[in-house]
């Protein structure tokens, strides 16, 4: 199931999309595979898997630490491709990879995208790739059937937003706050205002998903209730991994519970 079809089906059911992020290979490729499959089975609608990178500029301390653990475990981009393919053989869920452009550049953009397609990757998120330099990447990705998911921020101006939307497929990723990834106590008014400002540009054309700082069911309720089509949760899931590095059973139990509770928050109110 590709990303757009997933959003369409959720819309028909009156649900918002829960998008879960995990750093691939953290704390090891084997356990990471188990974590991802658990999250998928417990109700996440779209999976976002991060390829570990030594300088993840968009990520806060929690995901930076996860990248370091993954790299220390020997995780490579090929290992992440293998995780995606293995997951897809068991669970039919859209999967997007989050990475930085240097990873594509080092492998070769064409080779990276070909491998991604062969391993059933559905979309890519590259935070440090501006649209001004993305024409070739977007063209090659489109040929491989891979969505190019670009980001907007609370400060993105209307003309810039329209340009970003021209390059975006799958969904538009709205960064809900200024700064890097990480848990926040509440959903800010800036986030709510940003959703309401940007939604008219995406309505009827592409889903709008909101991320950065969301980690409670009430956060999910708030952003979906304000008009977002999906909510992205990352640091809260990664933090569970960090807190249970020596207890995989407890890790899976806590990941399962959080995912179920977050998914409930996307369901229509009875």
Model description:
The structure is a single chain. By secondary structure, the chain is of the alpha/beta class. The protein has helices at 3-13, 29-41, 61-72, 77-90, 101-107, 109-118, 135-143, 158-167, 189-202, 217-225, 235-243, 248-264; strands at 17-23, 46-50, 95-98, 123-125, 147-149, 151-152, 172-175, 208-211, 230-233. It has one domain (3-264): Aldolase class I (TIM Barrel, Alpha-Beta Barrel). It is 50% helix and 13% strand. Helix 9 (189-202) links the parallel strand 7 and strand 8. The longest helix has 17 residues, at 248-264. The protein is globular. The model is unreliable at 179-184 (pLDDT under 50).
């Amino acid at each position: 199931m590709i990303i757009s079809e997933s959003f369409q089906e959720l819309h028909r059911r009156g649900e918002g999309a829960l998008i879960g992020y995990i750093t691939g290979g953290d704390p090891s490729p084997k356990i990471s595979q188990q974590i991802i499959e658990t999250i998928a089975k417990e109700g996440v609608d779209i999976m976002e898997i991060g390829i570990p990178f030594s300088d993840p500029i968009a990520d806060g301390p929690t995901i930076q630490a996860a990248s370091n653990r993954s790299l220390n475990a020997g995780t490579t981009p090929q290992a992440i491709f293998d995780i995606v393919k293995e997951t897809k053989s068991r669970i039919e869920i859209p999967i997007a990879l989050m990475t930085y452009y240097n990873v594509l550049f080092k492998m070769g953009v064409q080779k990276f995208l070909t491998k991604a397609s062969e391993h059933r990757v559905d979309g890519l998120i590259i935070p440090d790739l501006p649209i001004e330099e993305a024409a070739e990447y977007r063209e090659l990705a489109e040929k491989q059937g891979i969505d190019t998911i670009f980001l907007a921020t609370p400060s993105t101006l209307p003309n810039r937003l329209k340009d970003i939307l021209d390059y975006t497929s799958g969904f538009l990723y709205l960064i809900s706050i200024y700064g890097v990834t990480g848990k926040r106590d509440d959903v800010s008014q800036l986030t709510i205002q940003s959703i309401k400002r940007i939604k008219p540009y995406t309505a009827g054309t592409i889903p709008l998903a909101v991320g950065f700082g969301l980690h409670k069911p009430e956060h999910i309720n708030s952003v979906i209730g304000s008009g977002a089509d999906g909510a992205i949760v990352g640091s809260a899931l990664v933090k569970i991994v960090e807190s249970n590095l020596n207890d995989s059973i407890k890790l899976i139990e806590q990941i399962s519970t959080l995912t179920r509770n977050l998914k409930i928050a996307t369901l229509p109110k009875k």
